[in-house]
Amino acid sequence: MAEPTLHIGRKISKIRELKGMKQETLAHELGISQQAVSKIEQSADVDGEALEKIAKILGLSSEAIKAFTEEAVFNIISNTFHNTSSDNSTLIASSLNYQPTFNTVEKIVELYERLLQAEKEKNELLKGK
Question: In angstroms, how far is CA 120 from the centroid of its own chain?
Answer without folding.
Answer: 19
